[in-house]
Design a protein that fits this description.
By secondary structure, the chain is an alpha/beta fold. The protein contains 13 helices and 24 strands.
Length: about 550
């Protein structure tokens, strides 16, 4: 008698499942000594990072170095060939490997770790564990109304107006800077249903999502997981006029899932979220992202013995914090939420909010008052944190079922600020990440007395502090006449030291509608075929760019 194939398969699956459940699986982080024998070279960087990433480094005079080289493939092979060991992921920045050791015999795990440590190129091996994370749950009653009518600008932004205006991002948008050409990588737990929501119709229609990656389960699908990242994305990318417009509605995005919010411990199938995050950050760098924003933070593990301690929050102890600093050194501007433990027993920021050189973001309410839940500094080595703040109390975000609601958390303050910074950096495109942060600190509301609740305060995106030269300033670079005009305008370069190259004409929402080259000190642009209204003339130079508003009537 031949057994039914379906029954046979069911028995086999059950057997394999029981065998797997009997196994012990432990994840380890293996630190390597060098990158000897690598087939890669800093002289040919496009073999391991994109040209866009290379261009970002060139624009900031950042050299490609050994930390950019992938981990030596031969090292991966030798470790992966050890009995019971499987390589999960390699970090080039930290020159380390995440592995899982699986066996039905606990002693075999010790044998495997000893075999790893016996390799000449291994420095040490340490266990990893899955983080615990609590997402914001403090939502206000559903409300999809827009701001009061009567003011065209307020009506256009809808519910997004107050949180953008608080940072003076509306002013930046008025000059035509809405994030065009800026790439923001969002590292989160998932972007549930984002590809089907009205908030993102414009984003997807213009191809503003450059790509997606799932570093938890593999592949590129991120729209069926947690909705936290979708809400975060809406703070920046929403473009639903008269309902909600975010702080960088014309920026481009990479959507990267690094947090496994759904699975319960123990989870033996994926490395801990800290290493997923590092993997996502390295990927963001490789594809040329300008800004990296994360609304995740960690202080505890599933096993209390591995919890972070405050005394180690110095930005140099935990791998995720080290990688955050490394990301800035690669030319990205990095933002991370301070956390929501300000009123709890922990109170302090988490990992990687303790990292040096990144912008740790705290939360305030619509009036600029400190939100009591926002985690506090300082870091263990005495640095003030957070750096800057934005609205995180009753902030407006999109719902994954459609519509909008108010939610509280530094998770939302962070992307609101990230989008505004994309516009600021777009305008001041010769600044390096360090100068962007330092400049915004100097413009902020609490810059004279920074503290460990709101840091330097709420930055002003449209104002530069005394002593900072605005290369993109309109002053004395070019003039436009007549203005207002009925058909044609003349653009005269008044400062030849800026070596003007091209002219862009953009409409009131920042869309590029015309471009032309500059061949002389004066260039005539014909507007006769365009409707009456407000436009922006942008002159691009070797030193930066400059924008002026014009009116056609």
């Amino acid at each position: 008698m031949v057994m039914n194939k379906k029954i046979t398969l069911a028995i086999l699956i059950a057997f394999l499942a029981s065998s797997f459940n009997a196994q012990t699986s432990t994840k380890f982080w293996v630190k390597l000594a060098d990158k000897n024998g690598t087939p890669y070279s800093v002289g040919t960087p496009t073999a391991f990072i994109t040209q866009k990433s290379v261009n970002r480094r060139l624009s900031q005079s950042i050299a490609v170095d050994q930390t950019d080289l992938p981990v030596t493939p031969a090292y991966l092979t030798q470790i992966d060939n050890i009995t019971n060991v499987q390589v999960l992921y390699a970090s080039k920045w930290l020159n380390s490997i995440a592995v899982v050791i699986t066996s039905t015999v606990s002693a075999a795990i010790s044998t495997a770790t000893n075999a790893i440590n016996s390799l000449s190129f291994v420095v040490n091996t340490n266990p990893t564990n899955k983080f615990k994370i609590v997402f914001e749950k403090e939502f206000m009653p559903e409300n999809t109304s827009t701001q009061a009518k009567g003011n065209g600008i307020i009506e256009y932004y809808g519910n997004g107006y107050d949180q953008a205006q608080q940072l003076n991002a509306v002013c930046m948008h008025g000059y035509g800077y809405k994030g065009q050409g800026m790439t923001i990588a969002v590292l989160d737990a998932g972007f549930n249903n984002a590809n089907n929501l009205p908030a993102f119709d414009s984003l997807f229609a213009r191809g503003g999502v450059l790509g997606t990656r799932d570093f938890v389960e593999g592949g590129n699908s991120v729209y069926e997981d947690a909705s936290h990242g979708m809400a975060v994305l809406s703070c920046m990318a929403a473009c639903h006029p008269s309902v909600m417009v975010g702080t960088s509605p014309q920026a481009d995005f990479w959507l990267l899932r690094t947090e496994d919010a759904a699975s319960a411990p123990p989870n033996s199938e994926t490395p801990s979220e800290e290493y997923n995050w590092i993997r996502g950050a390295e990927f963001a760098d490789s594809v040329g992202a300008d800004i990296l924003t994360t609304s995740l933070g960690y202080t505890t593990f599933d096993k209390a013995a591995f919890n972070h301690t405050y005394t180690a929050l110095n930005g140099k102890t935990y791998p995720m914090s080290i990688a955050s600093t490394m990301a800035v050194r690669k030319g990205m501007f990095v933002l991370n939420a301070a956390g929501n433990d300000g009123a709890g027993t922990w109170q302090f920021i988490g990992v990687p909010a303790d990292a040096d050189s990144i912008c740790t973001v705290g939360a305030v309410d619509v009036s600029g008052n400190y939100a009591g839940f926002s985690s506090k500094g300082p870091t263990a080595d005495g640095r003030k944190k957070p750096d800057l703040v934005a609205r995180g109390a009753a902030a407006w975000v999109a719902k994954n079922t459609g519509g909008y609601e108010q939610g509280s958390g530094t998770s939302f303050a962070t992307p609101i600020l990230a989008g505004a910074i994309a516009c600021f950096w777009q305008r001041h495109n010769t600044f390096k990440p360090y100068k962007v942060l330092d400049t915004l600190r100097k413009t902020a509301s609490n810059n004279l007395t920074p503290n460990n609740t709101i840091g330097w305060g709420i930055p002003n995106m449209c104002t530069l502090p005394v002593g900072i030269k605005e290369i993109n300033s309109n002053t004395n670079i070019f003039s436009v006449f007549p203005n207002p005009t009925t058909n044609k305008i003349t653009i005269r370069i008044t400062d030849k030291s800026y070596a003007a190259q091209t002219i862009e004409l953009r409409n009131v929402v920042g869309a590029l509608i015309k471009t032309c080259n500059i061949s002389s000190d004066e260039t005539i642009v014909d507007l006769s075929s365009y409707a009456n209204g407000i436009y922006f003339i942008k002159v691009n130079t070797k030193a930066g760019s400059s924008t002026q508003k014009i009116v056609k009537e």
